[in-house]
């Protein structure tokens, strides 16, 4: 069983537990349920940098990236740096995140927030909405076409945008549907953790122009972004590169100013 399979098994258990503790009615009573969504896809279309900066404490491939910042420091720093949006990891076991991180980010900034999570159930989309997210991530590698369709439709019914992540042509072909706003290509193979920008380059031409193209993971230089822009990418998700410094906001600001 690879790491991705393990995460999904744990996630399904976690959702069952959470459903037994926090009823849907409690999530729907959140003040954020009436909040108007801030569109990341619009921000990316109209941006010169396209940076989606990520709050990420650790990952399965890097035991620890950074635990020394508060969520408020990181997210405010990213907003001040001019990021188009912020990705907040909410998985606890493998990434050291939580839904509280999303809540704190929402209380701190006024730019689009992505709930970065392994979504397998509509309940997690309700959680995202209740904690102030503007969009959700769906990962094609762990979902069937029918699941992508029903989960993306449900997200849209709540006013959330959808970023779908793919890693190869097969995943892309099964996933294309009108309920997606953005299609992201993950440059990291989630099964082996090998990273290569070639994944983004090879799939670029296959992604219809109706969707905003996003390149995710393994981006650490301005040159890489300029290279990917030539392939039609408008969004660039960067986490580790900023988080591993002693001031993520400052690192993002310097990076964006170089762009």
UniProtKB/TrEMBL annotation:
Residues 4-254 form the Indole-3-glycerol phosphate synthase domain. InterPro entries: Aldolase_TIM (IPR013785), Indole-3-glycerol_P_synth (IPR045186), Indole-3-glycerol_P_synth_dom (IPR013798), RibuloseP-bd_barrel (IPR011060). Pfam families: IGPS (PF00218). Keywords: Amino-acid biosynthesis, Aromatic amino acid biosynthesis, Decarboxylase, Lyase, Tryptophan biosynthesis. One of its GO terms (molecular function) is indole-3-glycerol-phosphate synthase activity. Pathway: Amino-acid biosynthesis; L-tryptophan biosynthesis; L-tryptophan from chorismate: step 4/5. The keyword ATP-binding does not apply. The keyword Secreted does not apply. Its EC number is 4.1.1.48. It catalyses: 1-(2-carboxyphenylamino)-1-deoxy-D-ribulose 5-phosphate + H(+) = (1S,2R)-1-C-(indol-3-yl)glycerol 3-phosphate + CO2 + H2O. PANTHER family: INDOLE-3-GLYCEROL-PHOSPHATE SYNTHASE, TRYPTOPHAN BIOSYNTHESIS PROTEIN. Belongs to the TrpC family. This is Indole-3-glycerol phosphate synthase. It comes from Flavobacterium fructosi.
